[in-house]
Design a protein that fits this description.
CATH architecture of the largest domain: Sandwich
Distance between the termini: 38 Å
Helix content: 10-25%
Number of domains: 3
Strand order of the largest sheet: 1-2-10-7-12-6-5-3-4
Radius of gyration: 24 Å
Structural class: alpha+beta
Low-confidence stretches: none
Number of strands: 18
Largest sheet: 9 strands, mixed
Mean pLDDT: 91
């Protein structure tokens, strides 16, 4: 596999980038204007010590045993060894990060997981590893040396006695130094190793979730009570095995039973839609509203979905934050799901059921007034 390098291709150019999506890595040089995306280190310390955003601190270098500490931290002092601090879900705090991920409109919005920042000292790293999801790694500040590849297989072993899943070094597909504004896209299972070359090296990761079979089957178990009539059966069974033996035909019938359940109306839709719209963080909204909503709607012109809100639809059935809201969703709310923005005039035109649903979105902070930062 050859890792392509493209110049001046922005993250919004799906016609070019879709050919790499979930198939092969690609390097994008000078793809993002990052000057407005670089946080001050003091702000990052404040986030690590004063918020509940998921965070981790890794110290060590390849060939040694890493040390892992989970936040939030009472205090944060930079370690003497090479270190990397990881902070998740920063789209909740930085609207500009949310704007970057919304620029990737060629990927369905329900794929998005979160924006994670890697902040590192010289030689800081999270070790050589691979992920089971797609990620765009945007270099914000300083330089980072990357080794990309090969692709992990079923024979790729995880190193013992490490606090995270790391792998041994093997011959990479390519090596490369990322400068501010450069982007590395990695599909699932591509081994990679990034090492900071400068102090305050910052890399923004845009992660895109991929629900696994276990999560979908977990949802099936939660809903199975509504489909009690779908059971394993073997009419006209011919006894052709031992008393305690499960036959191949039994395994085939078990599989057919599961498929019959999935073929029930709306079951598969529900399993996927509730999983992909489940919020990344179960956080109390900062913008929950106790005041009367009707006057607020009259006073606001436009609204946007909070970065943490997940919204999708299937055949005009709307799902929000892991819940099925209703069927025959009006076009105004389909527009909201697609663009993450709506007008108050559209809200006022909704029928009672959908108007009350929107009022609840506003009350819980899922839908908030649009500001100058939302573009």
């Amino acid at each position: 596999m050859i890792v392509d390098r493209l110049k001046d291709v922005s993250l919004s150019e799906g016609q070019i980038l879709s050919q790499y999506w979930q198939t092969s890595p690609v390097i994008l040089e000078k793809a993002v204007e990052v000057d407005a995306l670089i946080p001050d280190p003091s702000t990052l310390v404040q986030i690590l010590t004063e918020t509940d955003l998921p965070s981790r601190l890794l110290t060590g270098v390849e060939g040694e045993t890493f040390t892992l500490t989970h936040g939030p931290f009472e205090t944060f002092k930079t370690p003497k060894k090479p270190w990397t601090a990881l902070i998740h879900a920063l789209e909740h705090l930085f609207p500009e990060y949310d704007q970057v991920r919304k620029s990737i409109q060629w990927i369905p919005s329900w794929w998005f997981e979160d924006c994670m920042l890697s902040w590192a000292s010289i030689d800081g790293s999270v070790g050589r590893h691979y992920d089971q999801f797609s990620v765009f790694l945007i270099q914000l500040n300083g330089r980072r040396h990357w080794e990309v590849g090969p692709i992990a297989t079923g024979h790729t072993s995880i190193l013992p006695n490490q606090p995270i899943a790391l792998v041994d070094r093997s011959e990479p597909l390519t090596s490369w130094i990322a400068n501010p504004g450069d982007v590395l896209y990695l599909p699932p299972n591509v081994i990679h190793h990034g090492v900071s070359l400068d102090p305050n090296c910052m890399t923004l990761s845009l992660g895109f979730r991929a629900p696994d079979a276990g999560a979908l089957l977990e949802g099936a178990i939660e809903t199975i009570d509504n489909h009690q009539k779908i059971r394993f059966s073997d009419p006209k069974r011919i006894r052709n095995g031992n008393a305690a033996e499960i036959l191949v035909s039994d395994l085939q019938e078990a599989k057919a039973t599961i498929i019959r359940y999935l073929d029930e109306p709306h079951v598969l839709e529900y399993l996927l839609a509730t999983r992909v719209t489940a919020p990344y963080l179960d956080m109390e909204p900062n913008t929950a509203i106790d005041e009367e909503i009707d006057p607020l709607i009259d006073s606001v012109t436009q609204w946007v979905l909070d970065p943490g809100c997940r919204m999708a639809y299937v055949n005009q059935t709307l799902y929000v934050n892991g819940e099925r809201i209703g069927v025959q969703t009006p076009s105004e709310l389909l527009h909201l799901a697609n663009t993450r923005t709506c007008r108050s005039s559209d809200i006022r035109n909704l029928e009672k059921f959908w108007y009350e649903a929107v009022v609840e979105f506003i009350r819980t902070g899922s839908l908030v007034p649009r500001t100058d930062n939302d573009s």
